[in-house]
Amino acid sequence: MIGTFFIVLIGLIINGQTNGLPTAKNDRTTQNKLEQNRNLVEGDMRYPTRTAQNGRALLLRGVGVAWPNGIVPHEIPPGYSNEQELIITSAMRQLENTVAINNFRCVQFRPKISSDPYYITIVNEQGCSSYVGQNPHVVLNRTVTLQSSGCLTAGVIIHELLHTFGFEHEQSRPDRDDYVRINWDNIQREMQYNFDKYDNIRVNTLNTPYDYRSLMHYGSTAFAINDSPTIEPIQSGVTIGQRNNLSAIDIQAVRLFYNCTASGITLPPTTTPSTANLYTTNAAYSSVLTTNSRRFSRAGEENSNYYYEFFLVTVPTSGYYRFRSNSIVDTYGYLYTNNFIPSSPTLNLLAQDDDTGGSLQFQFTLYLQSTVVYMFVVTTYSQNITGPYTVIASGLTRVNFVPITNTSILSSTTNIPIASSSINPSNNIITNYINILTNRSSTFIRHGGSGTFYYEAIQVTVYTTGIYTFRSICTIDTYGYLYVNSFNPNNVTSNLVTSNDDDIGTVQFLMTYRLEAGTTYILIFTTFNPDVTTSFSINVVGPANVNLLRMNLTSTVPSTTRLTTGTHNSSIFFASFLFLTIP
User: Fold this and answer.
1) Which of 13, 61, 499, 580 could form a disulfide with 481 if both were Cys (CB 3.0 to 4.6 A apart)?
2) Alpha-carbon distance 217 to 10, whole Å?
3) Overall pTM > 0.85
4) Does 444 or 8 have the greater pLDDT score?
């Protein structure tokens, strides 16, 4: 039998070009970056600790690779949600059914039993990886890591499980130089050993042809310097690095290695429900990125220019939700909790993705809480790209999208009480206000400070008398003031009822005050230090919904303030929500 295989396998045919974009980009994005762990062999393969001088594990051809009868016992310890575990087991069923001949078993996964001497343990840990082969008579945890954020797609899961069955990467075959070109100068120097070519002593190709479409093939920029191509097909018009499904040659190789025939034991009926059934309720948001869209620099890329749009996301029921883009351009998606600060794009970041959805589209699945306001940012992989896009959200309940435009004030409410907490009394409602202080915002000399301060004046009205709490959420040190009836920036102590700097211990203001129905209040958001601009949000918690309206002070008070305009740098954002917290 065979020791390790580069597996000549890989899934279904993918077009050489997608949406008119070059195949190199498509190749790069199909191989998961989480498969490129610098501490593992070729990024995602594990071996017993006995290693050669170059760090590669010694594995003899035909020894300890195949699992007897193609059966792999497994366990999945706590660490995944029920939905995530279902995604993993569904990928197992997909692999079993794809390689079976007329439903006669070729390979099979089953839960481990106490008498199993060897089994795999699938864990939600960093990266996507697996031990190669069974490795009998070796004491070790045969771990398969499938990180919940990034590795839970069928193609990636099957890729790692093929390592489990004994297959290695396609581009390491002895005959690979006849089919691909390795660009050594483009490879990170300390990672070049990952592109070593094996000989026929180490591996067995099973006399299958070289397979560009193999699920086990590297993408074109694996371990690249600045995303330069590290491996290029010699044949034109082909795609490498796909992570969708087994290719025809992949299927052939598994059947050959495990001596599969159209007889024997049939596979049991597939009782695992389709993962699609987990996400039956859909909502979609469509828009267009234009040259008038807002711009920002993505994390780690100073002075870059990416057009983006963002919108609020809420869910009526806590649970797992999936977001996927659909566009003619290469999209990139981010999801934030509470607030998105363009100048600090890693702050509050919950999830991000480039191309997990295939065809250069982002996709991620994660648990959302009904008590939290999320900010969804849609941008592109490359700079200065415009085009239409749609975000499709699916889950057990419908997702609410609230767009944030350059010129409009938007509000949306639901009627769900929120559980009590130290600052959120029982049955209270959260109102969220979002905007940006820019160098075109109004200015004043704030009470207790020296210098010129940018500020935002927000009219506050309520229809239910009660205790309300105002809290800022921002990356910088904020200061808040609350006035009754009117605010005069030339006399900042007049009508002042309360103010605060850092009461919640995070350089954010927190003010609690009894508001009377029918009375007008003015909330002033500013900063502790002068001449500071920033994005910000304000949460207001109270017994009823709060109306928040940005004020144009030139119509109410004499001053020399400069008013915010409707440009992409100084938009008006407002949304109001009621949410249920987890008890």
Assistant:
1) 499
2) 7
3) no
4) 444
